[in-house]
Amino acid sequence: MTTVTTAAAALGLLAVILVGPGPLWVGRWTFLHQVPRAAVVLWQAGTVAALVSVIGAGVLIALPIMGDPGLVLRLPPAEAMITVLVAAFTAIVIGRLIWSLIMVGADTSARRRRHRVAVDLLGRTDETRSIRGLRILAEKLPMAYCLPGLRESRVVLSAGALDRLSEDEVTAVLEHEAAHVRARHDLVLDAFQALHRAFPVMVRSEMPWLRSQLLVEMLADDAARRRTGPLPLARALVAMAGAPSPSAALAAGDRDIALRVARLAHPDPPPKRRHALAALVYLLSTTLLLLPLLPLALAPWTP
Q1: Is 87 helix (H, G, I), strand (E, B) or coil?
Q2: pTM, 2 dp
Q3: Angle CA(110)–CA(150)–CA(190) in degrees, nearest 5?
Q4: What does R_g of the chain's alpha carbons equal in angstroms?
Q5: Distance between CA 264 and CA 144 in Å, rounded?
Q6: How many of the other CB atoms lie within 10 Å of CB of 290?
Q7: Could you give the CA distance from residue 273 to residue 294 in angstroms, rounded to a whole number?
Q8: Do residues 157 and 178 lie in contact, with contact meaning Cβ atoms separated by under 8 Å?
Q9: What is the DSSP string of 246-259?
């Protein structure tokens, strides 16, 4: 039982670090904004590693008890209480993970589907632009967002945006939203949200979820910048800052505008430096995923 307890304690400590101080520390790494795709993978790897750690600790604690149900009664009271709490917490996390994987996808897809029907009914098409699924809404506020889907996607632009933005700025905004649709950033965020919700609110950090949303917007910003340059997109983001958008949509002017505009004002780092940094971040992500496997590999798997 000692070796199993040690391995379970190591996994528990790793989970605490990955859901507590770890995200706060990584959240200060502004250099990750230079490689947003690799940074998204890093945040996802940390969340997956935390889940594997929690589930692994629970499995290691439960296995000896499954082989000998009376064992928990013979343990010292403190150890028995810890064993029961770890097993219960693991069961809660597994249940929440299964539930969130089912519900996040179903709920978000349903809301996007309903909103697509609404914009098809209320919006008009614009045949002069090459963006598929574009709908123009008669709204005075400058706003733009997309509703990705497996078969039908919509990019929504308000009449206020067309009136207030220049042609280059409109092109930048449309390219931003089209990048979300092409890359299916919604699937990335939906999966991440499901993993994030597996942990109870009292023990999880909101940092990974918030940073992933920001990084996905930066990825779309980069796609628009390659098409029109940074200035039109920066101006458009400022003009649309704070504009409302549906909760199930991905909106250009919806998150950390000041930070994204400041990022656009700086030139891209040299490709070699960017590629080297991305490689290091991917290596760190792989290391995070492998960390929980070490105690699991060293622990005895027989009662």
Answers
A1: helix
A2: 0.87
A3: 60
A4: 23
A5: 19
A6: 13
A7: 32
A8: no
A9: -TTSEETTSS-HHH
Check: CB of residue 164 under 8 Å from CB of residue 261: no
Is 64 a residue whose pLDDT tops 70?
A: no
Q: What is the C-alpha separation between 81 and 300, in angstroms, rounded? A: 22
For residue 295, the cross-strand partners are none
Which of 57, 31, 241, 290 has its CA nearest to residue 143?
Answer: 241
Angle at 201 between CA 196 and CA 204, to 5 degrees: 55
Residues 6+ apart with CB under 8 A from 164: 142, 239
Question: What distance in Å separates the CA atoms of residue 287 and residue 289, rounded to the nearest whole number?
Answer: 5
Q: What span, in angstroms and rounded, lies between the C-alpha atoms of 241 and 247?
A: 16
Q: Which two tokens stand for residue 16?
A: 């605490």
Q: Could you read off the pLDDT of 99-154 as tens digits, one per residue?
A: 888 888 788 888 888 988 999 999 998 877 878 889 999 999 999 999 988 778 89
Contacts by residues 210-215 (CB-CB < 8 Å, ≥ 24 positions apart): 211/23, 211/26, 211/27, 211/39, 211/43, 212/40, 212/43, 212/44, 212/188, 213/189, 213/255, 214/255, 214/256, 214/259, 214/260, 215/32, 215/33, 215/36, 215/37, 215/39, 215/40, 215/43
Question: What tokens were used for 101?
Answer: 């994987």
Give CA separation, 124 vs 118, 166, 206, in Å: 11, 20, 38
Closest CA to 108 of 222, 247, 281: 247
278-300: average pLDDT: 89
Cβ–Cβ under 8 Å, residues 174 and 134: yes
C-alpha atoms less than 13 angstroms from C-alpha of 227 in its C-beta half-sphere = 20
Q: Which amino acid is at 161?
A: A
Tokens of 271: 């490709």
Contact 36, 218 (CB under 8 A): yes
Compute the distance between CA of residue 118 and CA of residue 123 in angstroms, rounded to an integer: 8
